[in-house]
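Retro notes, item 3 of 5
We never archived the inputs for the zinc ion complex last cycle. Fixing that now. Sequence and ligand:
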Amino acid sequence: MQSFDVILRNAHVNGAYVCDIGIKHGLISSLGVNLVASENTQIIECEHAIVTPGGIDGHVHLAQDKSPRAREAGYQCADTIETGTRSAVAGGTTTVLLFAEQSRGESVLEKVDAYHQLATYQGSHADYGFHIIITDPTPKVLEQELPVLARQGISSMKLFLTYKHMRISDKDFLRALHKARELGMVALVHAENGDLVDFFTEQLESQGLTDPVYKAIAHPAAAEAEATNRAVTFSSVMDTPLLIVHVSVPESTEVIRKAQSHLKPVFAETCPQYLLLGKSQLAQEHFCGAKFICSPPLRSDPNDVEAIWRGIINGTFTIFSSDHCPYSFTGPHGKQLGLSRADNGNPNGMFTKTPNGLPGVETRVPLLFSEGVLRRRCIDIKRFVELTSENPAKLYGLYPKKGAIQVGSDADLVIWHKSFTPRRLQHDRDLHDGCDYSPYEGIEFLNWPKMTLLRGRVVFRDGQIVNSSKYGEFVPRKGCTLPLSRKMVGSWDVLYAAS
Ligand code: URP
Ligand code: ZN
Ligand code: ZN
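Structure as it came back at the time:
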């Protein structure tokens, strides 16, 4: 007879059917009714609560302040790997994919090694993997280092088409995609036209228009749409899977949808800030607008937000990530740099000197559950699970170890009780991150995870981190298993591509 370390009784699995979930050695070992407990089995009575797979957040910046440029600018990420992953599990996310950033001239292998060491030293509450940010795709990086990373289970790279210190040329972009194809890696692209953003920014600066509110004007929708179109075209030419990250405007969403309808291997990500926040927040007084500075910026038109919701509903967006990139509002190394380093005499500061990014790793899953499933009722639990867990697992080569409630999968589980009393978010009372504010302060949450389990251990219960032990482990990843309509098998061929 099977024995279990833990049994979740009467779990409403993905809102689809009710059964017991038996767990042994951190894995789901049985799904059935009336599973038999031994005297050592821990029983968790779910009372028909919905149980979903642990969230997978494919876009999390933690401790990403070690680059020479970040040091020079004085930026300090508000979260360590320890505090950021503590916050993740408290919001139902059990796996995070972090960014190891290559500065120009650096080895990507050394960079990833440094992040491994940091994670081991600080400890992690969630399982984790790394994307490599490539800013300098030299022959050595592409030919010698990336194959090593791919073998180590780092199966994704992020490429930037904007930011002076990070962006790559079109030719380097193609070279990187070519290599990604060969190695079975997914390329994530930050799609904004850097020259267009720079030109708009210079125009604003020359007129002294640098208050936080001008951030939205400096990054027009056209910059995102142009770069998205270019990235989609390149992915199509190279016939290699590509993810456009943090999509914020309908123009880009349309480009992506059209490519998908032509069966191009293009995937898309959006984030809570583009569904729930708008550019009016940038106008908050006393420099509080800086709390909402991120790239791409918050958009204003309610139609933009509706177009993003449509993409959530109709499948254009493959994954829903946080782009958690926290800088504290108070203190000298976060958002205040936009005031303290302002050298143009504008008492309202400079958005160009303000670190970009919003915190959100803890609120991502509960926000989509609350707003999408419960308030708008525009998505069902199946689609919610796809966006927050199953699709990130498939895209990033973690499925079915992660992203599924199946026999053999890791017992990463989130329990949502119906008895939750709706409450308005208060950062200091409710959240567990290292930042000092939430952009979602005051939003009413209609539900929140009652419990989070990581590989069978309860790590969060009733608002509290349960165990101070940090069980999170590095998870090596394989290639993308989302359906692709690949024309070409084997290596890319220029004559075939041109035909
Ligand atoms: O503002 C943002 N999103 N900062 C993080 C860096 C990035 O581009 O994802
Ligand atoms: Zn980005
Ligand atoms: Zn990001």
